[in-house]
Design brief:
The protein is built from 18 helices and 14 strands. It is an alpha/beta fold and about 425 residues long. It folds into 2 domains: about 220 residues, Rossmann fold; about 180 residues, Glycogen Phosphorylase B (Rossmann fold), CATH 3.40.50.2000. The strands form 2 sheets. Strands 3-2-1-4-5-6-7 form a 7-stranded parallel beta sheet, sandwiched between helices. Strands 10-11-9-8-12-13-14 form a 7-stranded parallel beta sheet. Strand 8, helix 11 and strand 9 form a beta-alpha-beta unit. The protein is elongated. The two termini are about 25 Å apart.
Length: about 425
């Protein structure tokens, strides 16, 4: 990276960024927690370094937050099986750090230092990584510059490039060209992403298509989830099971009337609804909506199950396991920002969601493939659910599309590790 761009970044952009963070920290508890978490960062790092095997090479993974780190986990866990590396994990966000600070497959979990030259140099003076891996996009200029000066390989994994990105603007494009020129390998999700990075003028050998580790991760988690045996499949008899996951009020306003009408018209179906926020008022509101015409039971009371039609999940962290029981599923958030559609798709079922799904490339691809079904209102929800209830062959056909969609994209982790081992 040229001194001109670093000067602009360090003299103008970085001080402005730090000022904004400090002001936000006065009002936002999450930002405040992130700033406080970096206090005594080096002292905490030194303590953790004292407990590691100095003979092992350090592989450093950096993620912005929890979502990006989920994509790192398949890679980390495969490398961990070799037992020859020390795994360092850093986060920018406090939510990522707080939720993963006890992640068992990492030797050290830390905040990433603030991206000033002095903070980065100080952090690097205590560690000597064999490689630095950025997950997706959280690439910090001073960190890249200082690591590349030490001739340490740098990777970006699961990289995506949006054509609408501000990286395409002339001055910004020039800045990113300089930044990415310091990266050893950019491993993109799709060929289109590769073309986007190459449009910056990068060396073609620097950019490789590897796929998306999210598919590996959701497949791995689905296998683990099935072993939990949360429910006895036989309790549903020959009733199709509809799992309504991560529901928000806007989703429920569309889906609940359709389900209630179908049940009142004696369609065979069992629904498992897992609210995104299972607060007591929310749970009671769902019960009030369906009762007395439709019998409900909370998941925590399933030991007393007596053929209720609606099971209301009153806990968190089990949705992926519940999708296993689905004949078809609805993923919530599609009237604002959709949740993970791969979680039900991995089990080979049709996936329904709302119209605002364009933030999810997987949702758009499922729609294109045919097993992603979009509903915009009560009428379309009723029609879609009724069709799936009536036509078992149609459910099976769409389910096979979902299954093939996920399984055909598994394997990016192995491609990435093969490339990493050329440089570690």
């Amino acid at each position: 990276m040229t001194k001109f761009y670093l000067f602009i970044y360090n003299a103008v952009l970085l001080p402005l960024f730090f000022l904004i963070l400090r002001v936000l920290g006065l009002f936002n508890s999450k930002v405040r927690k992130g700033l406080k978490g970096r206090e005594r960062l080096i002292e905490k790092l030194i303590i953790e370094l004292n407990g590691i095997d100095k003979s092992k090479k350090i592989v450093w993974f950096h993620s912005s937050s929890m979502g990006e780190f989920e994509q790192a986990k398949p890679i980390i866990e495969k490398l961990n099986e070799l037992q020859i590396y020390t795994i360092l994990v850093t986060f920018f966000s406090p939510s990522g750090y707080e939720n993963q600070k006890n992640y068992p497959f990492a030797d050290i979990v830390s905040y990433v230092p603030m991206d000033s030259p002095s903070e980065v140099k100080r952090f690097l003076s205590y560690i000597n990584p064999s490689i630095l891996i950025f997950m997706r996009y959280d690439v910090w200029p001073n960190l890249v510059y200082q690591v590349s000066k030490k001739e340490i390989p740098i990777f970006i994994v699961d990289a995506t490039y949006s054509q609408s990105s501000n990286r395409s603007l002339f001055f910004v494009k020039s800045f990113y060209k300089e930044l990415y020129s310091k990266i050893t390998r950019i491993m993109t999700v799709t060929e289109k992403d590769k073309e986007g990075f190459l449009s910056l003028g990068l060396d073609e050998n620097k950019v490789l298509v590897a796929g998306d580790t999210r598919y590996d991760r959701v497949y791995q988690k689905s296998i683990e989830a099935q072993k939990k045996n949360l429910l006895d499949k036989n309790i549903f008899g020959d009733n199709p099971v509809f799992v309504f996951g991560s529901s928000w009020g806007a989703d429920e306003d569309v889906v609940f009337p359709a389900v209630k009408k179908l049940l009142e018209r004696k369609y065979k179906m069992k629904m498992i609804v897992a609210p995104h926020e299972p607060t007591i008022p929310h749970l009671e509101g769902i019960e009030k909506y369906f009762n007395p015409g439709v019998k409900t039971i909370r998941f925590s009371e399933m030991r007393n199950y007596s053929d209720e039609d609606v099971i209301i999940v009153d806990s968190v962290g089990i949705l992926l396991s519940l999708y296993y029981y689905a004949d078809f599923a609805y993923v919530g958030g599609g009237f604002k920002q959709i949740h993970n559609v791969l979680e039900p798709a991995v089990y080979g079922v049709p996936v329904i969601f709302g119209p605002k799904h364009h933030n999810s490339i997987e949702a758009e691809m499922l729609v294109e493939a045919g097993s992603g079904l979009v509903v915009a209102d009560k009428k379309s929800a009723y029609k879609t659910i009724r069709t799936l209830l009536k036509d078992e062959n149609r459910r099976r056909e769409l389910g096979e599309i979902s299954s093939d969609f996920v399984k055909s994209r598994i394997g990016s982790t192995d491609k990435i590790i093969l490339e990493l081992h050329k440089y570690i």
